[in-house]
Amino acid sequence: MFSQLTRLNLTATLIAGLTLITGGCASQPETNSNLTAIELASPSPSSAQPSNTDPESNSPVSDSFAELDFDDQTGEGQLIEVEEVRLSLGLGFVVITDQEGDVLGYATATPDSQPVSVSLSDRVASSQELIGILFLDNGDGEFSIQSDSRIRDGEGELIEEDFYYTYKKN
User: Fold this and answer.
1) Which residues fall within 8 angstroms of residue 87, CB to CB, at 6 or more apart?
2) Torsion of CA 24, 29, 32, 37, to 10 degrees
3) Using CA atoms, how far apart are residues 130 and 37, in angstroms rounded to an integer?
């Protein structure tokens, strides 16, 4: 199965070739034309794989349908309720971070998953501002901040929302 990057490279190569062919058909033939053959290189398998070492290497993907919404919440520091999550690209992840960017927990989301609750692996022990971020899975079914891609909305904005979490000791 070809990766999306491989399919895009093949499509671009075909379009470039067809442009050269059809461009020549539209003009008058020259009697002494000198054509030079160009050899197109195919992408190497490693160039189609995302880097697992650089979190900035995964370009965000666009999903004009995507949305993420949270209400401010009160709790014992273990569970976050997502008011609304929408995406149309496939399996995604709703990721909860603190203001420093530390991942506190995540949950899977699909185009028809509602509601979504996020169990925190790192308990919130004080009231604070948290951030919910929407990621698209890279196809392995496991969340990785290094290899999964952030999602942008129709205006090009990264899908994320901050909300206030009030810690209530039981």
Assistant:
1) 63, 65, 66, 109, 110, 111, 134, 136, 151
2) 20
3) 57
pLDDT for res 144: 95
Say whether pTM exceeds 0.90.
no
Give span(s): CATH 2.60.40.2550, the chain. 62-167
Topology at the third CATH level for domain 62-167: Immunoglobulin-like (2.60.40)
What whole-number distance in Å separates Cα of residue 118 and Cα of residue 105? 6
b/e code 71-93 from CB counts within 10 Å (16+ = b) = eebeeebeebebeebbbebebbb
C-beta neighbour count of 156 within 10 angstroms: 9
